[in-house]
Specification:
A-D-PHexomutase_a/b/a-I, single chain, TATA-Binding Protein, 19 helices, 7-stranded mixed sheet, Alpha-D-Glucose-1,6-Bisphosphate, Chain A, domain 3, 34% helix, globular, 3 domains
């Protein structure tokens, strides 16, 4: 406890016009936060001001991040401002480190009014990289649009912020730190908690750790390779997978969180998780997985690098959901996927007579369904999978779900997926990302596309590529009415649906820090030809997608930045 009460200040400031949070919060280059006066302070104050003062007073909040550059600097400012804005207690991860799933877990455990997540997810880190700030509400999930819109409106008119500049927190020591503040009856409390323990305890109550330990370190154990990509998942992998479940320490790589992720792009896909992909090729490992910067995304690989698409991953988990003890106890209330995700999950939902929800991209839409008791399992094609145990996607949960299936079925990853295709047919799926394109050109292209597909004559149009003919059955701009509160989300992506069920989807993505990203998603169902190459099978639809949009010509690109 400090000897004399710490002074609270109100500091004049001027607004910035560009602090609109995207689907994953506010993401900018680090230099924006460093070089623009009070840029960080303005946005943090806008978050606090969006919460009613009566709710803020004496409340608990959680803060932590993925360990990227600027993480600790931001935490110090957030704590100083929380104290000055009436928050009574801050829960912070040791050294400021908390995975996004762990933050969701802690918000729910401590009944906090919310949490501030410091991450730019799978975007690069370091002084020249990205930084992000996301506000999660009391359910542990990302703030809904009404809240993020309110934060943005406040940020556009902000005139001052409150701060306690003399407050200094020691992030290295576990336990409580108390601070007397002027004009406050109760001390302000900061609690530094073990980054892993509460979250690990949650997982112990979901999975059969004894069965997983036998699978990973018993007499006939499988060999696995886990790549944390120098993100926040490293400490969780070491504690849960290695110490608790008995994986050899050398089976977990890149497990030390680094401010620049070792100069790598912490994105768990075939292009960026090259350490893992390369090490899986020779067949010495039966199972491989990688996580992104903040630990909420995952990639699953089988022996010799057999790739499980995220769309197939959530469908396979759904079909084997009772391999997870948690769902044996709770039952299954519903499945959901984001609209661009392949329809593989739909086929499992139909066969099992479980309700299927198709939502816009963004985990907050799943959270609303979970809060209403309507949803148990969900996934996105962007390497996100999760259950209703928290309100965020959860990389490690997905890995333990897969290992639970392996432990029960005693088959390889590849055999499990191929059996799934034999049972349900296969949804071939790919995504083309065109990153850092000119935002005006991208918006113009999307507007022209929408005008084209909205024309009545577009429906029933036929497109021929080689010996394939595709006829348009439906075309629209996806709109979602939330079945819980009837809120409507418009302009969620342009869809062209063909008579055979194949789909082409165009979206402008909002998770980058500069420029725009145009994404094209292609999804095509096959009942018979299920063991073919994805890009070969989808080549005709890709040709049609590029022809309709004229994307290469309009964006000045010869091809996509990333194909997944």
């Amino acid at each position: 406890m400090e000897n004399s009460p710490l002074q609270l200040l109100t500091v004049p400031t001027a607004p910035y016009p560009d602090q609109r949070p995207g689907t994953s919060g506010l993401r900018k280059k680090v230099y924006v936060f460093q070089s623009r006066r009070n840029y960080l302070h303005n946005f943090i104050q806008s978050i606090f001001s969006s919460i009613d003062l009566r709710d803020r007073q004496g409340s608990t909040m959680v803060v932590g991040g993925d360990g990227r550059f600027f993480n600790r600097t931001a935490i110090e400012v957030i704590v100083q401002m929380a104290a000055a804005n009436g928050v009574g207690r801050m829960i912070i991860g040791h050294h400021g480190i908390l995975s996004t799933p762990a933050i969701s877990c802690l918000i729910r455990k401590y009944k906090a009014i919310g949490g501030i997540v410091l991450t730019a997810s799978h975007n690069p880190g370091g002084p020249d990289g990205d930084f992000g700030i996301k506000f999660n509400t009391a359910n542990g999930g990302p703030a809904k649009e009404a809240v993020t819109s309110k934060i943005f409106q406040i940020s556009r008119t902000i005139e001052e912020f409150a701060i306690c500049p003399g407050l200094r927190v020691d992030l290295t020591t576990l336990g409580k730190q108390m601070f007397d503040l002027e004009n406050k009856f109760k001390p302000f409390t900061v609690e530094i908690v073990d980054s892993v323990e509460s979250y690990a305890n949650l997982l112990r109550n979901i999975f059969d750790f004894a069965a997983l330990k036998e699978l990973l370190s018993g007499e006939n154990h499988i060999k696995i390779r886990i790549d944390a990509m120098h993100g926040v998942a490293g400490p969780y992998v070491r504690k849960i997978m290695c110490e608790e479940l008995g994986c050899p320490v050398n089976s977990a790589i890149n497990c030390v969180p680094l401010e620049d992720f070792g100069g790598q792009h912490p994105d768990p896909n075939l292009m960026y998780a090259t350490d893992l992909v390369d090490s899986m090729r020779d067949g010495q490992y039966d199972f491989g997985a990688a996580f992104d910067g903040d630990g909420d995304r995952n990639m699953i690989l089988g022996k010799r690098g057999f790739f499980v698409t995220p769309s197939d991953s959530v469908a396979v988990i759904a079909d084997n959901i009772f391999c997870i003890p948690y769902f044996q106890h709770t039952g299954v209330r519903g499945f959901a996927r984001s609209m661009p995700t392949s329809a593989a999950l739909d086929r499992v939902a139909k066969a099992t007579k479980i309700e299927l929800y198709e939502t816009p991209t963004g985990w907050k839409f799943f959270g609303n369904l979970m809060d209403a008791g309507m949803l148990s399992l969900c996934g996105e094609e962007s390497f996100g999978t999760g259950g209703d145990h928290i309100r965020e996607k959860d990389g490690l949960w997905a890995v333990l779900a897969w290992l639970s299936i392996l432990a029960t079925r005693k088959q390889s990853v590849e055999d499990i997926v191929k059996d799934h295709w034999l049972k349900y047919g296969r949804n071939y799926f790919t995504r083309y990302d065109y990153e850092n394109v000119d935002i005006d050109a991208a918006c113009e292209m999307m507007e022209d596309l929408e005008i084209m597909i909205a024309d009545k004559s577009f429906v029933k149009q036929r497109f021929a590529v080689e010996d394939k003919i595709y006829q348009v059955e439906k075309a629209d701009n996806f709109e979602y009415t939330d079945p819980v509160d009837s809120t409507i989300s418009r302009n969620q992506g342009l869809r062209i649906i063909f008579s055979d069920g194949s789909r082409i989807i165009y979206r402008l993505s909002g998770t980058g820090s500069d420029g725009a990203t145009v994404r094209i998603y292609i999804d095509s169902y096959e009942k018979e030809q299920i063991f073919e190459d994805t890009q070969v099978m989808l080549a005709p639809l890709a040709t049609i997608a590029l022809k309709i949009s004229q994307l290469h010509h309009r964006m000045g690109r010869s091809g996509p930045s990333v194909i997944t």
